[in-house]
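Record 1 of the preview.
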Amino acid sequence: MFTGLIEAVGAWREAEPRGGDLRAWIDTGTLPVAELVLGESVAVNGVCLTVVGTDAAGFAADISVETLDRTTLGTLGPGRAVNLERALRADARLGGHLVAGHVDGIGEVVAIAEDGRGQRWRFRAPEALRRYIAEKGSVCVDGVSLTVASLTGDGFEVALVPHTLAHTAFHRLAAGDPVNLEIDLVARYVERLLGAAAPR
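->
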């Protein structure tokens, strides 16, 4: 489980094909490699990956065919900035929102506009996910916990404050770029429960 509060901006180093899937190496930037433990979870652009190896600069993770099909990780090239977050400790503050690291779909950056000292970003979301996205609700974009500022016909808008722009990989994105989207965990389970309770 994660919070969507990014701990460091790392870099995608390389990805080695292995029998149809990938083994990737991610440089961790300011995230201390020495603190990583084999088998622990790290969210990379919002995707929960398992650490299978480390070196002086980063860690390795195996990426399944399922993950490649449902996320943007397979499109990343060497040097691409990525958002990193280690799994939430039980005694830590929950400053963002509950994030599973299980991407629900791929969205797209539609527009970026200056907005005071921050920026207003508009995203397109797959039609199947839009009903879960509510104004002033939470959404996770490339691993970052964000508050939905407004809804649009094909997606949503968020207001990014200077801190978010300075401490995430959003500065490497532009209109037309794909992003990983995870809807609010609570919305997903409420729908599941209501569906199970409906008369048949």
